[in-house]
């Protein structure tokens, strides 16, 4: 697979991650576009055989940091997006709907540094090492942020004292 | 591990994320079998993963955002980078040559290969020449909108419809006829509240452009160009990329709205 094809294959991951990170489809699409443009222009710098996803996430995080610095683009909105709400509304089980809304709110309330780590690992299946590389932080920091994020989510959802949600896969 | 009552955070997470080697994995599984508290935590974390996917997975076949498709179609910035340098030379000739500047532009263009680049360079040059004109940026003002739009349509030989850019904060202030390499072209001028201007350069479709949006830039000037087959368009202005994106969004919505009616 050539580098360009490998890049295109990772775009769905970038889109999903960018949306869940920014909680704003427009901002996420802009971020993915900028990432794509920059990555294409630097494709010669990507070393074949290394992890394309980790590299793209690195590019994206550098851009994201710049965006946060230069613009007054506010922190991710905490309210649920219409898109996610309609996804939840389509679920039959009322308890499951409640649990998912709690989970979304808890994710929104995480400090961004914890949300990044959580989403890269839990949603995008990135290794601890790749996550550390993408964010430019030590692996130990990745692990401690991840542990804090998961405990916060667990408390947020358990705290509601709802019946346990069955795993459905 | 044997002395502790509970698994460490590190162990639980590494187990859930598949970061353990086979031996560690086996040890943890033995432990979990008779430590229901830890097993519950593992279960909770696995459930979190599942819920995150339920919440944030995009529907299958979610299309790539328009801007991403453009970026891929343009193969990044490198394809038009060499064009910038020639464009810079073209703009210098305009500045030096004054009224003779257009001749200078043609000279430059003949040395360029892609017709789309020539087109967008002319559009950026036209912006540079007219948009900075504080006295008479347009030949005919927007008061006679229908008049000059139909006049320019007649000169182009195709009906022209100017996109409404008010959602992006720009109002149409007028237009003029310009020379596109010996053929008539229309230049429409838009202005925002703070006096910022963008121009829309329109000529009869030549078949060299397709309906994808492309972007070209020269220093702080940026142009978006595309074709609807009947006409070729280039929107140029001095603006940030995010302002240009807002305008692009407005135009694509207008095009989609038109296509669906």
Walkthrough of the structure:
The complex is a heterodimer of chains A (169) and B (261). By secondary structure, chain A is an all-alpha fold. Chain A has 2 domains: 68 residues, Rna Polymerase Sigma Factor, Chain: A, CATH 1.10.1740; 77 residues, Winged helix-like DNA-binding domain superfamily/Winged helix DNA-binding domain (Arc Repressor Mutant, subunit A, Orthogonal Bundle), CATH 1.10.10.10. Helix content of chain A is 71%, strand content 0%. Chain A is built from 8 helices and no strands. In chain A, α2 crosses α3. Chain B has 2 domains: 48 residues, no CATH class; 189 residues, MucB/RseB, C-terminal domain (Phosphorylase Kinase, domain 1, 2-Layer Sandwich), CATH 3.30.200. Chain B has 9 helices and 7 strands; from the N terminus they run αααααααβαββββββα. Chain B has a 7-stranded antiparallel sheet with strand order 1-2-3-4-7-6-5, sandwiched between helices. The longest helix of chain B is centred in the N-terminal third of the chain and has 21 residues. About 15% of the residues of chain B have low confidence. At the A-B interface, α1, α2, α4, α5 and α6 of A face α1, α3 and α4 of B.
Give me the CATH superfamily of the largest domain in chain A: Winged helix-like DNA-binding domain superfamily/Winged helix DNA-binding domain
- In CATH's first tier, which class of the largest domain in chain A applies? Mainly Alpha
Percent strand of chain A equals under 5%
CATH top level label of the largest domain in chain B? Alpha Beta
CATH level-3 fold name of the largest domain in chain B: Phosphorylase Kinase, domain 1
Number of domains of chain A: 2
Q: Which percent band covers the strand fraction of chain B?
A: 15-25%
Which overall shape of chain A is indicated by the principal axes computed on the Cα atoms? globular
Greatest contact between two chains: A-B, 48 and 38 residues
Please give the count of helices of chain A.
8
């Amino acid at each position: 697979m050539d580098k360009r094809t490998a890049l295109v294959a990772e775009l769905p991951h970038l889109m999903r991650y960018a949306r869940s990170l920014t909680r704003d489809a427009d901002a996420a699409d802009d971020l993915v576009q900028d990432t794509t443009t920059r990555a294409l222009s630097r494709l010669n710098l990507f070393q074949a055989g290394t992890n394309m996803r980790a590299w793209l996430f690195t590019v994206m995080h550098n851009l994201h940091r710049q965006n946060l610095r230069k613009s007054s683009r506010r922190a991710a909105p905490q309210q649920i997006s219409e898109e996610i709400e309609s996804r939840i509304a389509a679920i039959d089980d009322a308890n499951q709907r409640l649990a998912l809304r709690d989970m979304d709110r808890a994710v929104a309330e995480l400090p961004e540094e914890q949300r990044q780590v959580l989403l890269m690992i839990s949603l995008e299946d990135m290794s601890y090492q790749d996550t550390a590389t993408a964010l430019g932080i030590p692996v130990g920091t990745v692990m401690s942020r991840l542990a804090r994020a998961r405990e916060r989510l667990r408390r947020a959802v358990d705290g509601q004292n709802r019946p346990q949600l069955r795993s459905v896969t | 591990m044997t002395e502790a009552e509970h698994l460490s955070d590190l162990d639980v997470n590494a187990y859930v994320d598949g970061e353990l080697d086979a031996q560690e994995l086996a040890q943890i599984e033995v432990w979990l079998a008779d430590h229901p508290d830890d097993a519950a935590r593992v279960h909770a974390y696995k459930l979190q993963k599942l819920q995150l996917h339920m919440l944030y997975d995009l529907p299958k076949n979610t299309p790539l955002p328009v801007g991403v498709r453009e970026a891929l179609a343009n193969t990044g910035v490198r394809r038009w980078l060499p064009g910038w340098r020639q464009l810079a030379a073209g703009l210098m000739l305009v500045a030096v040559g004054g009224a003779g500047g257009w001749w200078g532009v043609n000279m430059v263009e003949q040395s360029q290969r892609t017709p789309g680049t020539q087109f967008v360079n002319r559009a950026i040059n036209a912006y540079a020449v007219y948009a900075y004109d504080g006295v008479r940026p347009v030949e005919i003002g927007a008061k006679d909108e229908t008049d000059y739009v139909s006049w320019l349509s007649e000169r182009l030989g195709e009906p022209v419809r100017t996109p409404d850019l008010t959602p992006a904060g720009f109002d149409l202030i007028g237009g003029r006829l310009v020379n596109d390499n010996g053929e008539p072209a229309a230049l429409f001028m838009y202005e925002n509240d703070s006096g910022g201007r963008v121009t829309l350069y329109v000529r009869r479709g030549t078949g060299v452009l397709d309906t994808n949006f492309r972007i070209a830039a020269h220093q702080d000037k940026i142009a978006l160009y595309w074709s609807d087959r009947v006409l070729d368009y280039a929107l140029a202005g001095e603006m940030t990329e995010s302002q240009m994106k807002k305008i692009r969004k407005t135009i694509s919505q207008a095009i989609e709205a038109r296509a669906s009616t």
